[in-house]
Structure formats: structure tokens, C-alpha cells
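STRUCTURE:
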């Protein structure tokens, strides 16, 4: 399933020291909740890496907080996706 592939790709990015940090658009931002997730011919893709973070720049503790939040956002997206 495409959703599983997205989760696998995010896990690989986390292991490599990268976190997207914006799966779910913040509520105070204009636009729809998941505007930065696109369904393409090759699967689900994330765009807009403007607030992404590298472990080497933010340190392990903050990076892990970002990863945990991203996993929470992924679960919200999973429920949204499956309800459609």
C-alpha cells in the first residue's frame, strides 16, 4: 500500500538524520491540512521541506522530538487517508 511505502521512506529519512517536520500543515497556516502531500503515479510524495531539520544541526534530543511529532502527524494522515 502506498501509505506503507510513505512510512518506510520517512523511516529511512529519519535513520539518515533528516526529518521533514511538516506532514500536517500547522493550524495557523493557510491552506488545507495536508497540502504538502501529493499522490503521484509513483506513490505519495512530500513537498515543502522549508522547516525540515538535520540531526547534525539540531542535536539528537531535539531531532528525536521532531521525529516523534512527525510520527504523530503520520498517524493523523493515515486516518485521514483511510477515511477517504
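SEQUENCE:
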Amino acid at each position: 500500500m502506498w501509505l506503507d511505502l510513505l512510512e518506510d521512506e520517512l523511516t529511512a529519512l529519519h535513520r539518515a538524520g533528516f526529518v521533514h517536520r511538516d506532514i500536517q500543515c500547522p493550524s495557523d497556516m493557510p491552506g488545507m491540512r495536508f497540502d504538502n502531500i501529493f499522490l503521484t503515479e509513483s506513490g505519495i510524495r512530500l513537498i515543502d521541506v522549508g522547516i525540515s531539520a538535520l540531526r547534525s544541526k539540531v542535536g539528537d534530543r531535539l531531532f528525536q522530538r521532531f521525529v516523534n511529532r512527525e510520527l504523530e502527524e503520520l498517524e493523523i494522515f493515515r486516518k485521514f487517508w483511510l477515511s477517504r
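REMARK: The mean pLDDT is 83.
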